């Protein structure tokens, strides 16, 4: 079992702090923002984290970046921009992961179709429990192309969310598509989650596209409703 994880990815925490500085008029439209090195020192984070926060702010239209020039504030975010990003609100304080199994396979046909992979290509398959305060709250099956699996598999028990890990390896998302429905737990899921077979679960299916608009991740996560509050905030 992993050590407790941050609920919100680090780059999103930094992004929020930068948004607050703009909203407080510390940085106003037209102003250059501090350099990457200055931001790294100010927030005590890596250059990768700063770059991903700036990239997201640029995608949101808050900061303007041009090659060869300093990044500048483009506009003051409105209230809907206050918490940009994708947020899953899971009940609890200390979050961790338990890996159940992982493998490379060619027989996961539905997942491969979601990832737009060829029939003979290998897909990386990861099955995990998501825990809050030591209590199982969700059952997750995650699939990626093999080259991404090679990046994430060695630390599958130490990351709660995939996006910071991908960002640290210069793999960024452009679009996240999620479908949220209700389902009933089968016996295997019930035993893992400490509930009864047939109990209701929140069923979230997600496809994540990279910056070239090709899928980089497909996942299906089933949550025990009492432990989960779901909210999504994307862009404007």
Automatic annotation (TrEMBL):
CDD domains listed in its UniProt record: WHTH_GntR
Protein name, UniProt field: GntR family transcriptional regulator
SMART domains: HTH_GNTR (SM00345), UTRA (SM00866)
Keyword terms: DNA-binding, Transcription, Transcription regulation
Organism: Metaplanococcus flavidus
Stretches assigned to the HTH gntR-type domain: 8-76
A matching Pfam family: UTRA
Record PANTHER family: MANNOSYL-D-GLYCERATE TRANSPORT/METABOLISM SYSTEM REPRESSOR MNGR-RELATED (PTHR44846), MANNOSYL-D-GLYCERATE TRANSPORT_METABOLISM SYSTEM REPRESSOR MNGR-RELATED (PTHR44846:SF1)
Residue ranges of the TM segments: none
